[in-house]
Amino acid sequence: RNEEARKNALANELRSPIICVLGHVDTGKTKILDHIRKSNVQTGEAGGITQQIGATFVPIQTVKDRTECLNQKGKLELNVPGLLIIDTPGHESFSNLRSRGSSLCDLSILVIDLMHGLEPQTIESIKLLKKGKTPFVVALNKIDRLYGWVAHDNLNFTATMKKQTENVKIEFKDRCNQILGQLAEQGLNACLYHENKDIRKTVSVVPTSAHTGEGIPDLMMLVVQLTQRMMAERLAFVDILQCTVLEVKVLLGLGTTIDVILSQGKLREGDQIVVSGLDGPITSQLQHDPTYAVILAFDVKVDKDAQDMCKEMGVTLFTADIIYHLFDNFTAHLAAIKAKKKEENAHLAWFPCHFVIKPEFVINKRDPIIVGVDILEGRLTVGVPVCVPSKDGLILGTVQSIEINNKELHEAKVGQSVAIKIANFGSEAPKMYGRQFDSTDAIYTRLTRKTIEVLKEHFRDEMTKQDWRLIVRMKTLFNIM
Ligand code: GDP
């Protein structure tokens, strides 16, 4: 990966840097984002800004146009394809990500109100940025609120500053120096961006107004410059997928959807994806599962074409004039599918069990083994293979029948003493009581990863808390990670 990244960095094959905006409430974070968005919507360029879910993509052409006043000779090469700005500064899941020190963001913009200086959430944000080692710039916003400010819409900062009166310049300098002092108290070296001689050690400060757009070209230019100079390798395109989930939503007609930030690689339609859920990995599978391939048509006529199309596509169609009937039909459909899946997987549903042989009840030592047993944990069912985990998983055979007082049982429960017949398992050589195993061995039903999957997926309602606890313990015995 490093080699590929280095090569692509040299060839300037870069991805868009991911930028997030943070700072105290009311400093103008949303307004700055709005300004970047709106100005481009107004100019109506082709291939303009695309507002995506939770993020805004600003194409490089837009950055070029907006920064023309600064880069008239085109001296600075702009190599990134654009900027991906996270829209939702206060987004809860995003602040979660930030506090976990996520490396999702390549660069942050910390917004400070020039008239208020550092506020509690500014200091909080600085702590998060330091903790996550995220590079950032400061937007010193609301310069238009300086007394006597004359606005020059969308002009770059140094040019508009030159046009201000002496008094405005003095007030700006005072307030700016005061804030630089406050930043120093937080352990940060900072200075105005055009005076910054060492961008790696000193934080650049860009004065802006989100109302008039002054300084916004400087901010955009600086962000591109910094990302290109400081993180070319990090931004180099490599074909390894990296996605971060921002939000999980249930959308009408679509089901469960996730909003993700795709920060590296390519995601193609039809790709199967795996995300980590609270109960383990979740794998996308969605359109061939017949369970939810249904249409509930309530009090509407369904024409013949639609009915035929449903048949063709394997979609089950329910029609009813009474909503409760529709509900009952659908519930019955779900129950039938569940029962069918259970039936299909019944031969693999090996419920967990731990038992020992009663030495005084050994009726037949081999082929088939017939012994009396005490069920110590779980339950024993017919058809299940049993083995001795402490002897390298030695398989004794499959439980062929269970009896109590000459009566056949399908299942024996914890606490019961029963007689069982164990038949040979597959092509395994028959085992003999007293030779490979005896009454001192702890015998368990066989556990595999597949067994656990089947029990989880189709037999959860039949499993007790004790059963799951036994499975957890057996996983260690059977070396299942
Ligand atoms: P956020 O909470 O940081 O997202 O702040 P907002 O973007 O919602 O802005 C808070 C208030 O400050 C709003 O009333 C904005 O109109 C105002 N505001 C934001 N930026 C500027 C600015 O550059 N100049 C002036 N005068 N007001 C601003």
TrEMBL record:
Location of the Tr-type G domain: 14-231
Protein name: Eukaryotic translation initiation factor 5B
Covered range of the whole protein: 518 to 998 of 998
Similarity annotation: Belongs to the TRAFAC class translation factor GTPase superfamily. Classic translation factor GTPase family. IF-2 subfamily.
Native species: Sphaeroforma arctica JP610
